[in-house]
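Q: Structure tokens for this one, please.
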Amino acid sequence: MEEKKLDVNSIIGFVLIFGILLFMFWQNQPTPEELEAEKAKQEQIDATAKAEESSVVAEKPSEEKTINFQDSTAVANYKSTIGAFGFTKASDETTVLENDVVEMKISNKGGQIIEARLKNFNTYDSVPVYLIKDGNASFTLNFTTTDNRKLDTKDLFFEPSLTKSGENQVLSMKAKVSENQFLEYRYEMKPDEYLIDFSIKSQGLSSVIKNNEPINLDWKLKAIRHSKSIKYSNRYSRLTYSHEDGKISKLSDSSDKDEETEEDIAWLSYRQHFFSSILVSETPFAKADLSSENLVEEESHTQKYMKIYDSKIPLELKGGELSYNMNWYYGPTDVKVLAQYKALNLEDSIPFGWGIFGLINRYVFTPLFTFLSSMLPAGIAIIVMTILVRLTMSPVTYKSYLSQAKMKVLKPEIAEINEKYKDNAMKKQQETMKLNNKAGVSPLSGCIPALIQMPIFYALFSFFPTSFALRQKPFLWADDLSSYDVVAQLPFTIPFYGDHVSLFPILASIAIFFYMMMTTGQNMTQQPGMPNMKFIMYLSPLMMLVFFNTYASGLSLYYFVSNLITIFIMLAIKNFIIDDEKIHAQIQENKKKPKKENKFQRKMREMMEQAEEQKKTGRK
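A: Here is the predicted structure, written as tokens:
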């Protein structure tokens, strides 16, 4: 009868909380004046975003450095400014390198990539995915010549030469001092690959470039937003790098600006959530100054850029010349693609998570989901993976429920102890420990299964938002399982919740509420000094409802299905496996048997007895 009453009270409590929540939303909805002010604020944000989009990280040639090639005087002035490199024929043109997966445009001005488009992918709003476009990136060398000119390759013209090497396209870009003296950028593109061979070499420039002045490589990129939620996408966009023989480190994903100076760098990855721009060096860079600046302050539907990445790298001359063999990678942050370049360890740039969580994602969930999604639609693959995970964890669920059943059987005796020693907390604790020890029950046995499941929980929390296999995969009403689903668009924004309603988090919240009703509800006796379990039972689903509203819908789908399966498993355990009467009989038998204390139990008992004795002595 008491359990039935508790269930009714819990349901009434849930309804009341939900009603209060709706009332608060209604009370806090904006007035017409507030809506007008919000509209004006949004217009100001949009104007700022447009102004930001027009700015460039890579310094475009300024007006005074733009050359009119029909004006011989302007050309002569340009050549006079750059000195020896004026031998290069000035021509403001671009060369295209492309295969079936990527298209690149390389400009004669600066010899650098000015556009990188991934052919097989579109953004959330069906626009082609560009990693470089509209001057958002720059790759330059700056150095001092022997006649004391400070030059930057972004101001130099390079002469292109496009040839073939078998099936590969080879583009040589040379900034010439003479026919036999030049600075060369060499690009080699292979068929169907995102990885491009790239090298920087000089020939005959030992008498042109000052040996005692630093030559600095400066690579900047302004990360373009490709996803529906810029705030969510920005959370998984980071500057990652490999250094010190394979150590992987990252700059902050949320600080306004993070800077580090590192040594022995093998590669640098400018990650833009599901896509990455990576520079690899065959000879690790001896040193680099790295920075990441966050551009996202709040959710916006119009803001284009997320972060500004910048790496300043001093290059070393050998025999007065430059010689660096490198690679460019412009492509998806997809384990299937990056795994092709195992020798470069580019897989390590994927945010699997840290410690044991990353290992679980990398070697269990990623291969499992990749296998399942190769045969099934992504949503069904998530459901099948969830079933497999829950079945694997069912022994843990059984132990947890068995512990709860034992505690339920002992509940009347514990209540008697609490009443008998209600004025003596120490004695109450001692007697409770004795009872548990005689009955063969450990209160911690219910916590341990939960702790075992924590790595699984956290690993999946990292897996779903970063799994490329989920990107733009629809399921039921969700059009992209890597982003939030929308069943209703709100005319205003609710703090912490957002401007939309996602259904999968609602379903997951309902499922976790009933799961907690089954587990917490049956043993809801309030212990002094302990958290109010009924409050936690209501709070947990509400937190999931609020905070998962902007998370990947695949994650909410997993937790919804997972909790449903767990409920069914627990019902099966309760009705067909565990017999309360048998448990009670077993406990009574355990009480009759002499029970030897282990070291931990003996130590705890002795400590409590000493504390009790000290308490009595203090009273005297």
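A few notes: Confidence is low (pLDDT under 50) at residues 1-30, 48-64, 523-531. The longest helix spans residues 378-420.
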